[in-house]
Amino acid sequence: MVNFIKKNLLGSLREFRNRFINPIQNGQCADSTLKDVRIMKKRAHVLHAVLAGCVQRRDYSELTKFLPPKHEYVLSVRISPLQYKMYRYYLDHVASEGSKTKTGAHLFKDFQVLSQIWSHPWCLHLSNEHRKKNVYKKNQFQNTAQLINVETIVAESGLKDNEGKELNDNGNSTMSTDVPQIVLEGAKAACSPRSQSPNQAWYKHLLTERDVRIMEHSGKMMLLFEILRMAEDLDDKVLVFSQSLISLNLIEEFLAASHEARDPLSSLKNGSWIKNVDYYRLDGSTSASLRKKWADVFNNTSNFRGRLFLISTRAGSLGINLVAANRVVIFDASWNPSYDIQSIYRVYRFGQLKQVFVYRLLAQGTMEEKIYDRQVTKQSLSFRVVDHQQIKRHFTLFELTELYTFEPDMLDDPNSRKSKRPTPILPKDSILAQLLQIHKDWIVSYHEHESLLDHKQEEELSEAERKAAWAEYEAESNPAKLPDDSSQDTLQKKTNEQLLELLNKSRTNVSVNFLNLQKMRAHTIEDYILQLHQQYPLLPQAELQIKAQLWKQSDDNRRELAQTLYRASLAKQQTLTLQIQAIFNSRRTVTPANPSTSNQPGEV
Questions:
Q1: What is the pLDDT of residues 177-224, one digit of tens each?
Q2: In the prediction, which pLDDT does 146 show?
Q3: Strand order in 308-312's β-sheet?
Q4: How far apart are CA 36 and CA 393, in angstroms?
Q5: In angstroms, rounded to a whole number, what is the distance separating the alpha carbons of residues 368 and 111?
Q6: CA nearest 247: which of 121, 369, 359, 81?
Q7: What is the pLDDT of residues 346-376, one digit of tens each?
C-alpha cells in the first residue's frame, strides 16, 4: 500500500525484506539475542519515521475518553478428557498419516478438524453430516444435468440412425441402443451418494449418539452458558462470535435443550431460548434486509426478551451496530487478529452506555493457543512500527512456529504442563469472578489482553541510539552510490572526464539534500496549535494540543531524516573529492615515458 502511495519509498520487496522485515522479525521473540533485539528496535524506529509522512492511523484508543471502560479477558479453558483423547488420537493416527509428507503439509485441514474437537467433539459429527448432505446435493445436481445430456444424445443418435434404415416386422427400427444405454446406466449409478472416506470416519469409535447431549464434553460450552445465565440476571445482552457455522449450530441445539429443560412455571423470559425472540443469528446466508431487521430489533430498548446474538465472525464482524449488548464472547480465535478486534467494535462504539466486557475463550495447550500467540505478535509488530511503541516479547520462536505441540493442563495428570501465565487475583468483572469460583476446574488461567500489549517506556531508544539507527540504516541502504565507484581501484581506472562527472554528480546530490533540508523549517508547538485552531475552530484545547504534538513529531522525524541524508551525502562528497584530487596529483607527477610525446610549447 505504501508503494502505491509513494513509489520506491521503501525500495524493492527484496530491499524491504533485507532492511526491515528480517531484522524486525529476528528480534521480536522472547529468545532473540540482545543484538537482534537492539537491531529490531533501531529498524522499527527508522521504519516508523520513514512512514510518518504517508501513514496515519487511529485506533479505538481515540474513543476511550468518550466511552465507558472496556475489559478484555483471555480465558485459557481446560479441555475435557474426551477432547484430549480425540485430539491425541487425531495427531497420532490421522494427521501423521503418510510419514513421508512434511509436518503441517495439511495445516488448514488439520486446523478445521482440531478446531471442531476443541469447540465440542460432536461438531465432528455435525460437520460430517453437513458434508454428506452437500455432496449428495451436488451429485443430484450434476446427475440431473447428465441425464438431460444423455436423453439428448439418445434422441439425436436415434434420429441419425433412423435415417435410411429399414423397419423390422413389427414396424420398429433395428437401431442398436447399446451405447446410449451404457451412458444412461453410468449416469444413474452416479446418483448414489459417495462412499465415506476412512479419514472422515476416524472418530466413529470414539464418539456415540449420547455425546450430543453432554455439554461437559466442552469447557467452552460450559463457560458460555454460565456467562449467558449470569448476563441474563444482570439484564446484559451478549454477542457470541464464532468462525464455525457448525459451532453456531451446536450452540443452537444446546439452547433448544436448555429451553426444553427449564421450569415451566418460571417467568416468560427466564431460561427461555426461542429463535428470533430470545436470540438471533447472523451468518453469510442472512439477507441484508433481515440483517438490518434483527439488528434493529436487538437494539430496541423496549426489547427485553432478545438478549443473545449468535454471529459468524466473517459475516458479522464489520458493518453492523449492536450497542445494545455490552458483553462479547469470542468463541474461537481467528488467524487474522483484525477479525476478532472488529468483532469487539460491534459493541464498543459511539452509543454504548455500559462497561464492555470481552471474553476470549482459548482451548489451553492446543493449536488455538498458538494462533492467539501469533495474534499478539502481529499486533505487537503493528504497534512497534506504526505506533512507535515498545512491547514486551512474550513468545519464543519455537512457541510461534510449532503449531502441532499439544501440552494441555489436565486435572488428573500431575505431570501435565501447567500454564506459564500468572493469573491476576481480582478481576474487575463480577461474572468472571463468579466463573473463577464456580468453574475453577475449567479455567486454567486468565489475563487481560491489553496487558500483553502495554508500552514499555524503559525499552525506548535513547536519542544517541536513534541517531545511530539512522547512521546504520544509511550505511546499509546507500553503500554509495560511492562504494562501488569510490574504491581506489575503481577510480584509478576512470578517465579524468569520468572522474569530473562523478564529482559533479556527488556535488549535485549534496545540493539537493541541502535544499530539501532548508525547506523543512523548525516550528514551535504554538505554531502548530495556531494552524490547527484555524482549521478546527471548535476543537477543544486538549485535542488541539495532542494533534499539534503528533504533527510536530512527524515533522521532526522528517527533518531528522533529511538532516541525516544531507550529512551522509556531504561526507561522501568530501571523501570522493579527496580521492579524486589524489588521483589527479599522481597523474600530473608521472614522468612521460617517451620524450617525443611531451607537451609542445603552447599545448596544455
A1: 444 444 444 444 444 443 444 456 788 888 888 877 789 999 999 999
A2: 62
A3: 279-282, 308-312, 237-242, 325-330, 356-363, 70-77, 443-448
A4: 12
A5: 9
A6: 121
A7: 999 989 999 999 999 999 999 998 888 888 7
Q: Which three cell numbers stand for residue 546?
A: 495532542
CB 507 within 8 A of CB 553: no
Helix axes 541-588, 463-477, angle to 10 degrees: 50
Grid cell in block for residue 357: 466486557
User: Residue 568: exposed, middle, or buried by beta-carbon count in 10 A (0-12, 13-18, 19+)?
Assistant: buried
Which residue carries 467452552 as its cell?
220
What is the average pLDDT across 394-406? Answer: 68
> By three-state DSSP, how is residue 203 classified?
coil
Which of 156-165, 333-342, 428-437, 506-515 has the highest mean predicted lDDT (pLDDT)?
A: 428-437
Round to whole Å and give the CA distance between 579 and 216. 80
- Please say whether the beta carbons of 279 and 310 come within 8 A: yes
- Closest C-alpha to 376, from 74, 86, 121: 74
Distance CA 311, CA 320 (A): 11
Cell numbers of 46, please? 527508522
- Largest CA-CA distance found in the chain, in angstroms, rounded: 127
Name which of 96-110, 424-438, 473-487 the model is least confident about.
Answer: 473-487
State the sign of the Cα–Cα–Cα–Cα dihedral 575, 577, 581, 583. positive
Angle, nearest 10°, between helix axes 337-344 and 367-385?
80
Question: Cβ(573)–Cβ(509) under 8 Å?
Answer: yes
**Cα-based angle 97, 98, 99 (whole degrees, multiple of 5):** 100
The b/e string for 158-188 (b: 16+ C-beta within 10 A; e otherwise) is eeeeeeeeeeeeeeeeeeeeeebeebbeebe
> Locate cell 462497561: which residue?
355
Cα separation, 211 vs 123, whole angstroms: 11
How far is the C-alpha of 223 from the C-alpha of 145, rounded, in Å? 48
What is the Cα–Cα distance from 157 to 345, expressed in whole angstroms? Answer: 64
Residue 168 CB partners (closer than 8 Å, separation 6+): 174
Q: Tell me the pLDDT band of 171, cut-offs 50, 70 and 90.
A: very low
Output 258-266 pairs: Cβ under 8 A, ≥24 positions apart. 258/225
Give the chain's radius of gyration (CA, Å).
35
Residues with Cβ within 8 Å of residue 205, at least 6 apart in sequence = none
- Angle at the Cα of 45 from the Cα atoms of 40 and 47, rounded to 5 degrees: 95
Q: Which three cell numbers stand for residue 9?
A: 519509498
| CA–CA distance, 382 with 51 (Å, rounded to integer) | 12
> Is 237:231 a contact under the CB 8 Å cutoff?
yes
